[in-house]
Amino acid sequence: MKLRSVLRTATAVSLIAGSAAYAENIVIATVNNGDMIRMQGLTDDFTSKTGHTVEWVTLEENVLRQRVTTDITTKGGAFDIMTIGMYETPIWGANGWLVPLDDLSEEYNVDDILPAMAGGLSHDGTLYAAPFYGESSMIMYRTDLMEKAGLEMPEAPTWSFVREAAAAMTDRDNDINGICLRGKAGWGEGGAFITAMSNSFGARWFDMDWNAQFDTQPWKDTLEFYVGMMNESGPAGYATNGFNENLSLFQQGKCGMWIDATVAASFVTNPNDSTVADSVGFALAPDTGLGKRSNWLWAWALAIPAGTQKEGAAKEFIEWATSTDYIELVASKEGWANVPPGARTSLYENPNYMEVPFAKMTLDSILSADPNNSTVEESPYVGVQFAAIPEFAGIATEVSQEFSAVYAGQQSIDEALAKAQALTNDAMEAAGYR
User: Fold this and answer.
1) Interval 17-41: pLDDT, tens
2) CATH classification code of 25-135+298-354
3) In the CATH scheme, what is the code of domain 137-296+372-430?
4) Does the predicted model carry a pTM greater than 0.85?
């Protein structure tokens, strides 16, 4: 008996020592939004289960995109996991810059990932990033202010109704703006919003021969409508407002409507953070009757750069952070309304989650976005709020800067569109598309 006891003790010590020997410290680059910050707060659960520790590099959205793009293109090796999206993943996967996620465990159940998300994070059928959460965009609005204005929000409104409602809800004396929208430069900030909006006005970035389309009437219509509505009913300084700035304004009760990421719904309805949590309604993003709504499709996802020396630990973290177990962990601590949405089919089969007020509208918005058919007229690219070509990020960042200059009153719409047309065509010609 004594010998067995000694052997058992020795074996246990050996296992602990072996586990410690293989424990890694992984470095993760991520975006500074609420869901990612919540994940950081729960990292001890991952460490207790695996022994691995995590170092976080948390960055503003535009800075994150710049940092991870620079790191992966230069093989800098600064990160073991990167938070990227549907734009980067297929391109980087095709270039061999990401580790394929084709050997995730059976318990992880990769087939449970919503098809829209898995498709957008794959190249040639291989998954290269796992969605932490998926999103579209929708209208979040103050039900009390809508009622006070004598209006009723349709489930699927037009842009004309939204502009009318924004004007009716605006109360400058009480610092209430009828509508808050992104104007901040950056292809994934204000650029994403105006591109998705332009789809509903019949605009597109390129024709079928990759000629820029900023000299067409639908783009002029889009910008004139946006600028007119925001000048009438938007907040001062909207040219520099992105997701986080508008979230703060809405939570403070300073916006009648906000059209943005569906993932924001949990933040505006959380009474711990939002002064208007008990009076928020939801509707589909607007259209103009041309058959396309102005909602996008996106996932913030976790990917592993090729060349990391900690691939095994990185995969363990991705399985932990994007699993159904993680969803249940968040639900147990903060309630079902605060779990990361839009990534897994099973979440929308869970009756506990479907009682959340915004769950169905989020799913309906995600399912209504079609990256393969996002424009009224035929276009040569895949993507709703972006064109999935390597050159897009650089071009669209410059274009968004021109648009933000319009919002700030620094140039006219015609001047901005002319510059956008020229710089886009120049870049596409240099890249060999034309």
Assistant:
1) 344 448 999 999 999 988 999 999 9
2) 3.40.190.10
3) 3.40.190.10
4) yes
